Amino acid sequence: MDMARVPMQLSRGCIVVSIQVDLSDAVLARFRTDLLDLLQRSGASAVILDLSGIAILDLEEFQALRDTMSMAALMGARTIFSGFQAGVVSALVELEARTDDIDAALNLDMAFEMLAEPEPMAAAEDEDAEDVSASEEQHADAPPLEPPRGD
Description:
By secondary structure, the chain is α/β, with parallel strands linked by helices. The protein has helices at 25-42, 59-74, 86-94, 108-116, 120-140; strands at 8-11, 14-18, 46-50, 78-82, 104-105. The protein has 5 helices and 5 strands.
């Protein structure tokens, strides 16, 4: 018996995964192995997980997908979930799924646009570095502070 596989393709240095099959434990395990192997072989800088073909997603399946994407992130890839259907989003919120630390896009086009932008954390670090540099430049011309005199 041949197990269903999750299709993946390399596009613009990014692995695009399109889930169009029912997610069983075996399919999720095979997907994890296939994705991490392809990521290691290709050296891709990002993974987009397109869920537009999924109408129903339970909490355990979502957690398995999150875990796999976390593993890809540990390998250095930026990870983006794409194409959540409204019913899936509603169910995940109702089930109190942890979604606060995932990047998500409405569709594949928007996911690729997100990849063209710097990551939010990296952008914030760059702004902090610019603020420190500007502050140092302002104080470079200022005379040194003198200690208070005891009168």
